[in-house]
Amino acid sequence: MDLLRTRRPPALFAGLGLVVVIGLAIAAWTVWSNDQALQDRGVEATAQVVKVNKGRIHVEFETPDGQRAQTLVGQGDEPPGAAPAVGDEIPIVYDPQDPEAEVADRRAPQNHRVAYLLAGVAAFGAVSVPVATVALVRANRRAR
User: Fold this and answer.
1) pLDDT of residue 129
2) Burial call 62-94: b when 16+ CB within 10 Å, e when fewer
3) Which residues of the chain, if any, have pLDDT below 50?
4) What is the pLDDT of residues 30-63, one digit of tens each?
5) Which of 61, 70, 122 is nearest to 92 (CA)?
């Protein structure tokens, strides 16, 4: 196939791979930063479940200054067992500097599972994309 023998596919593959790796690294950093903010300066509150959509729990709560905030419980920050139903009240931890950011369910064990998963996939991509790009370049050279 002539398309595979050009120099564009390896560069395109490398460019797209770089974009994906950077996106995963940014996502890992964002999740990690939010987890750290909750751990360092988190404030406990009681939130009411307003919606459960495909495993994501939407909650609403009131801050001490009377502000109403609506946000999501972070992925991996849900307690084991059945998800709460709409109208249930759950204990949460939120960041007072950003109450609209994802919150953690206080009943869930602290973990950084999602951050570690994203960082691991980004690291795997950071190693495998260059290796695959070099292999693709060598295959294109041999095909000429």
Assistant:
1) 93
2) eeeeeeebebbbbebbbeeeeebeeeeebebbb
3) none
4) 989 888 888 889 999 999 999 998 878 999 999 9
5) 61
